[in-house]
Design brief:
Keywords: Cytoplasm, Nucleus
Number of domains: 2
CATH architecture of the largest domain: 2-Layer Sandwich
GO biological process, one term: immune response
Family: Belongs to the IRAK1BP1 family.
Organism: Pycnonotus jocosus
Distance between the termini: 77 Å
Radius of gyration: 24 Å
Strand order of the largest sheet: 1-2
InterPro entries: IRAK1BP1 (IPR030312), SIMPL/DUF541 (IPR007497)
Shape: elongated
CATH class of the largest domain: Alpha Beta
Length: about 140
């Protein structure tokens, strides 16, 4: 008989495989893992990358404001300009037999990357206005 397990945690997969081999010995055969990303995981990656890009933009704008003695205010406009995705090809296993690739190569081929470029406009406040409000 054949049993198929789906894991979302690589470490847990390794632990279960090791336990099965330890308990069942040579009576079990473990096939090489097949790595893929669920649509939900890819959506989470896209959101995380965009939020990180906005955070990076805000930090850079704060540094520039500090250089000119200004304070960064609220965002007036945030626009996602470009999103790029690469790697993580679900069909990459078709081009190479899983047996011909090392585990590291299979992980590398299945790893998904994304980048996001955002455009943001922030309100800029003079520092003297902030000091007056604090008094």
């Amino acid at each position: 008989s054949q049993v198929c397990f789906i894991f979302s945690d690589f470490g847990k997969m390794q632990n279960v495989c090791n336990l099965l081999i330890e308990k069942l010995g040579t009576s079990i055969t473990i096939s090489p893992p097949h790595f893929y990303h669920t649509p939900e995981a890819i959506d989470n990656l896209r959101r995380h990358v965009c939020v990180t890009a906005v955070g990076n933009t805000r930090r850079k704008a704060q540094e520039v404001c500090r250089l000119f003695g200004q304070a960064l205010g609220k965002p007036l406009l945030i626009k996602e300009e470009e999103t790029k995705e690469w790697g993580g090809h679900i069909d990459s296993h078709l081009s190479h037999s899983p047996d011909s690739q090392t585990l590291q190569e299979r992980i590398e081929n299945a790893t998904a990357y994304a980048s996001c470029r955002v455009f943001a406009v922030f309100e800029i406040k003079g520092k003297e206005n902030r000091r007056n409000k604090l008094l």
